[in-house]
Design a protein that fits this description.
This is Solute carrier family 23 member 2. One of its GO terms (cellular component) is membrane. GO terms for molecular function: transmembrane transporter activity. The chain has one domain. It starts with a strand and ends with a helix. It has a two-stranded antiparallel sheet with strand order 1-2. A two-stranded antiparallel sheet has the order 3-6. The protein has 19 helices and six strands. By secondary structure, the chain is mostly helical.
Length: 466
């Protein structure tokens, strides 16, 4: 079996990743040699859970952001426990699909979740006249059973479209069609697509931040401070081991946990200020403003297939969802390449990419069966997370997948995460959306920017997309 060789890490240890290569890779230069933990390296047992939780927090923040946009279009009230049920279902699907992707798919440390690609095709479906929602007052007066039926009908229509979409994507992946089409998925295709995905929802992130600019700016400041200016600061921490007893380790804690630290500090600060009655009840940073979902959500709930009823298949919905297939393929291929470069690996071969697209198709079918209201795609935000932390261990991503599956059964805990203050969520998500654009723009290094033709195509594509 051939291998994709890794550039030497900071310990100069040769590491390899098994792949079935079909031809020589191109454009395979790694980003740099400063990996904290390479793809086949196991971080210490005291670090692995924290690194995995950071990936889970990144994924959950993006999912909360997506469902903050989707839930009102499904006619779900702000304090309806259905928000927690849908989010828990999406977390379970993200866990299963991430595990399958790292073991059976492209086998890179890449997280799968409900992304923005499918959201853009779902929203036009819900804007159809038959799916228009009544006002929140009318929905409230309907009663819980009638409200449940209202949003169930909408989710079931999306489920049917997702199942068909997943079948098509699975066929495109496992038939080898994607491998043969890779020559057409060039940086000139990837850059406009991914930039527009990030830019198209940045307005929602800014809207969330506008609720309290002070909190949002402090969150952005902490993210920037930890990830860019304190990333080389080494802190000595005491660690206990059953074999070696108590000992000290030196860690670049700000580089490894920049996202987790920033969100954690701001969330705790908001909870404290709310408890001291310093924050007004109408302020979005008030952590008690979303406690209705937390009170109404059950403690445990296991998502299961067809939990909202049988999926319905509408030609209109299926046709509206078809563009998401091709946009998702372009985004995923770009994420595979970028993740490989961030991990100091050469470019994945055609058959590995085909497997990855096929797994995403299977995951989207699974999402359709469970009823997430969205499809599954590779997470550009988590790829950007690798670029920030330089942690690309597959074991970390595998543990993150297990945590997400376990977490999805604790609906009350999922509801607690929904109470994350909007300005903090908006600031974090905006940074992650910027990373999508940054990941996209990094592909420009592979094209000739002195060519007027390339510049014309790039500018025209972004212009018409906007």
């Amino acid at each position: 079996m051939d291998v994709i060789k890794m550039a030497p890490d900071h310990n100069n240890t040769a590491l390899e990743m098994p792949f079935d290569l079909e031809d020589e890779p191109e454009n395979s230069e790694p980003v740099d040699d400063c990996l904290a933990y390479a793809i086949n390296v196991n971080p210490p047992s005291y670090l692995t859970p924290l690194l995995a939780i950071q990936n889970v927090v990144t994924t959950l923040s993006c999912l909360i952001f997506v469902y903050n946009i989707l839930a009102p279009k499904l006619c779900i009230l702000p304090e309806d426990p259905a928000r927690a049920h849908l989010l828990a279902t999406a977390v379970m699907v993200a866990g299963f699909s991430t595990g399958m992707q790292t073991m059976l798919g492209v086998r890179l440390p890449i997280v799968q979740s409900s992304g923005f690609v499918y959201l853009f095709c779902t929203l036009p479906i819900l804007e159809l006249p038959k799916w228009q929602c009544n006002s929140n007052i009318d929905l409230f007066t309907m009663g819980p059973e009638a409200r449940t039926l209202v949003w169930n009908l909408r989710v079931r229509d999306i489920q049917g479209a997702m199942i068909i979409t997943g079948i098509i994507q699975m066929f495109l992946g496992y038939s080898g069609f994607i491998g043969k089409s890779l020559k057409y998925i060039t940086p000139l295709t990837v850059v406009p697509t991914m930039c527009l995905i990030g830019l198209s929802v940045i307005e929602k992130g800014v809207f969330l931040m506008s609720g309290n600019w002070t909190t949002a700016i402090i969150t952005l400041f902490l993210l920037t401070l930890f990830s860019q200016y304190l990333r080389k600061v080494v802190i000595s921490l005491p660690v206990y081991s059953s074999q070696g007893g108590l000992f000290r380790v030196r860690l670049k804690i700000f580089a490894l946990f920049s996202i987790l630290l920033s969100v954690g500090i701001m969330w705790i600060a908001c909870v404290y200020l709310t408890h001291r009655n310093i924050i007004l009840p109408t302020d979005p940073t008030n952590t008690e403003s979303k406690t209705g979902v937390l009170r109404n959500a059950p403690m445990f709930r296991l998502p299961y297939p067809f939990q909202w009823g049988r999926p319905t298949f509408s030609l209109t919905s299926v046709l509206a969802m078809l563009p998401a297939i091709f946009a998702n393929i372009v985004q995923s291929v770009a994420n595979y390449y970028t993740c490989a470069r961030f991990s100091n690996l050469t470019k994945p071969p055609k058959n590995a990419i085909s497997r990855g697209i096929g797994i995403e198709g299977i995951s989207t079918i699974f999402a359709g069966f469970l009823g997430t209201g969205s499809g599954v795609s590779s997470s550009s935000e988590n790829v950007g997370n690798i670029g920030i932390t330089r942690v690309c261990s597959r074991n970390v991503i595998g543990l993150a997948a297990c945590i997400m599956i376990f977490l999805s059964t604790f609906t009350k805990l999922i509801a607690l995460l929904i109470t994350l203050p909007d300005p903090v969520l908006g600031a974090m998500t905006s940074v992650l959306l910027v990373l999508i654009g940054s990941v996209a723009l990094s592909n420009l290094q592979f094209i000739n920017l002195n060519s007027l033709r390339n510049m014309y195509i790039l500018g025209l594509s972004i212009f018409f997309g906007l």
